[in-house]
Amino acid sequence: MYKLIIRPFLFCFDPEKVHYFTFSMIRFLSKIPGLTSVFKSIYLVDDKRLETEVFGLKFKNPVGLAAGFDKDASLYSELSNFGFGFIEIGTLTPVGQEGNPKKRLFRLKEDSAIINRMGFNNGGVKEAVERLKKNKDVLIGGNIGKNKLTPNENATQDYEICFETLFDYVDYFVVNVSSPNTPNLRALQDKEPLTELLQTLQNKNLAKPKQKPILLKIAPDLTNEQLLDIIDIINQTKIAGIIATNTTLSREGLTSVNKIEMGGLSGKPLTKRSTEIIRFLSEKSNKSFPIIGVGGIHSAQDAIEKLEAGASLIQLYTGFIYEGPALVKAINKEILKRKS
Q1: What's the whole-number mean pLDDT along residues 209-231?
Q2: Can you say which residues are annotated as belonging to the binding site for FMN?
Q3: For this structure, is 274 an active site residue?
Q4: Average pLDDT, the chain
Q5: Is the pLDDT of residue 122 over 80?
Q6: By CB count within 10 A, which of 10, 153, 192, 316 is most buried?
């Protein structure tokens, strides 16, 4: 029903307006007695064989919702009813910011892709914490970044603020230095500043009575040499793992008119590259750290390929928008099929 009726209707309207409309509808429907149970009965695959333990956390299943969808932790509970094993919120910054000027979100329907240049629009980390205080049983990842006006030499302080503020309310952290939509942010992926940033956060982490896993989200546009540097940094700082990958600046092979728009590209054009990076990191590191695979997962087979390439968990974003919540169920069913 989603692809035949709901998606064609939603795709008639501006993508960002549709996003907020969809949130409102999900929130409204979830308040109707009995409908939450209906959503779960349709989409949730409840099977102990899907449970996955990664970096000390037990996930109900290995399929998560990637950061960027529920930036402000405003719908994590309702979204979990569509069968996700975990929800990653953010990217959050210390101070709320509007992000880049609209229009800033574009569908590339012919390519099954999206270009966004949102620019870390969010209400700030403290607002998100107030919502997370109501969390009952959803496993939450906290994706953190820096404010647009914070110069790179002071970026570490922004990440520290988010880390400390969120610490008691998320299960793991993701350091986002790979978004292409905040000026100069990707420069923080260079070996020296990245090592300093991650080591600072890890030192804060180690000072806690109980540590939380810290992951690094990387861009798909890194060279093999840069990826080897990333492996060295992970081994040096002893953070928990990698999320591969964020959106790309590449426009290779696109046919849609909107390919001229600036911003990060996600969706099917990213499928192959993100899987290549997962396999490279897994092989070159001798599987020394877990990888969450994200980028261009539009089918159960796409997900299996990432898991076989070395990912321990996977996340959806654009595939969830194009394929609907049935994709979550299809992936979990396929994983179970291969376990039997």
Answers
A1: 96
A2: 67-71, 91, 143, 176, 217, 245, 267, 296, 317-318
A3: no
A4: 97
A5: yes
A6: 316
